[in-house]
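Changelog note: in this version the structure field was regenerated for every chain. One regenerated record is shown below for reference.
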Amino acid sequence: MSGTVYVIGNFKGGVGKTKSVTMLAYESAVIKNRKTLVIDLDPQGNATSVLAKTGNISEINQTVTEGFQTGNLSEQIIPILDKLDLIASNTAFRNLSKILYQKFPDDEIAQITYLKKLIEPLKEEYDAIYLDVPPTISDYSDNAMLAADYCIIVLQTQELSLDGAQTYIAYMQYLVDTYNADLNVLGIIPCMLRQGGRVDDKVLNQAKNLYGGNVLDTIVKYQERLKVYDVEGIGVNYNVNGKPDTWDKRAHQVFIDVLDELDTHQNYFES
């Protein structure tokens, strides 16, 4: 088994990147039955917070920072659900540049491909590995992009998010060309703030004109239930008849549909 590594990004913050990482990883593990790992590379640790709540974990002692320092990520794995694991982030990971420089003082290639090296043994253990990164051109994005097989872009339907996505794709292409990386855009997930909003529709159409079939047909619309998962962790409530709560079902179905579409794109790339 050699797992597939996905980096989820946009160079604009607040577009639903972490939400997409955590929901896709959840559906990957629970619905698709894939052994799934989330590596949180953002020192803010939002993905860590959501997944810790999902797994009812109150204390986290292993972190990605430690893994980068010791050169072994496998010792930092925290089980969340049956097939879902996490490598957590913490604020100390803001020193990533320092850690990389101390390890490889005069070797830029070793610095930016360190995560790729650390992930290699994990690919034997997992079907899918999702990377959550801060929205900046930095050692975080360099390491994540060069470690990944595919890039999934989250596009909120506003002008600045489209700019961020375009910059992201251009930067990805620069890394591919400069370092001979094998990385493709797997899909662009449209996250719409207001259904039928003039700006939303305009930005979505612009994205489709620019990127064609890369833009998914499934649109993630604003749902209150998705915000609840930030506070309570991701899950499904059942009513007295044993049926899943309607709002939970709706929130999950969107990301199941997204994952189905991304799978179709991946099959196309790999056939």
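Spot check on this record: Strands lie at 4-9, 36-40, 77-81, 84-87, 128-132, 150-156, 184-192, 220-221. The chain has eleven helices and eight strands.
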